[in-house]
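Progress against Task 2.4 (sequence-to-structure conversion) is shown through the following example record, which the project officer requested during the mid-term review.
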Amino acid sequence: MPYSIAVVGDRDSVMGFRALGLDVRPAETAAEGAEAVRALADGGCAIIYITERLASELAGDIDKYKDRVMPAVIVIPGKEGSGGLGLAALKSAVERAVGADIMNT
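Structure tokens generated for the chain above:
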């Protein structure tokens, strides 16, 4: 079974990823984002990139997937730029995996 990679977020932030062959799911509201993430996860998507703004609104929904093998939910900056949420999520994941804060950021 081939695995897919998807991007969820506001239209302006995610549409460029379509040119790379990724499954693009524009979501302007938290409800649309939650539905997109749920559908992708249930559909066997391997990696879901989600914009920081939407990820901050869906923290509870995203937390359900943090200890699962699939999908990997990865926070990326949106059109507004980085607010640090993606780096914080990466630091937390590394700390959980290694058992110590090795990033010192």
